[in-house]
Write a structure and sequence with these properties.
- It is a single chain.
- By secondary structure, the protein is an all-alpha fold.
- It has one domain.
- 71% of the residues lie in helices and 0% in strands.
- It is built from seven helices and no strands.
- Helix 2 crosses helix 6, helix 5 runs antiparallel to helix 6 and helix 6 packs antiparallel against helix 7.
- The longest helix is centred in the C-terminal third of the chain and has 29 residues.
- It holds the Pfam family PAP2.
- This is Undecaprenyl-diphosphatase.
- Keywords: Membrane, Transmembrane, Transmembrane helix.
Length: 188
Amino acid sequence: MFRVVSPSPGPVDVWWNALMTATTSPFGHAAAATLAVLGTGLPGAAVAVVVGVLIGVLRGWAWGAFVIVASVVSALDVSGMKLLAHRARPDSTFGLFNAFPSGHTANAALLGTVVLLLTRSVVVRVLAVIWIVAMAWSRTALHAHWLSDVLAAVMAGVATAVLLFALSWSLVHANRRGSRGHVQSGLQ
């Protein structure tokens, strides 16, 4: 079967995994476990819905719906990549395969990037970046993923968000063109 990712971790992956083992603390483990819960299943979907509702209130319901749709597309992207990669996890208690890329991290990167694109608040933007970094860290701290898994997931989440945002932006502005072909100002 065709594989796009080496099933074996690289030297940086092994080094990072050892660093995560050496720096483990009860507080760090609890924080990572909490983020793991918030990034999957119903809690993960709830986070996406909350971000969608907040974006909807602040920027218009079309952009709120965009957040939800983008989260679903991201999940489908990640599922397809996991099938192609079929990569073993550092700790088999999380399952034997499907480590590459991290779905938790890809969704965090997608949501964080959407927030970066649709908000102007520096505080909110900093919190979005912290969310992405914290989720990526948590996946490696729990040994659910290799460092390369989470780095690829960040790239996948950002790329999905930017591509879907560009498509949505062009559709929003195509619908706002006046009779003379001018784009009306303002993002809703």
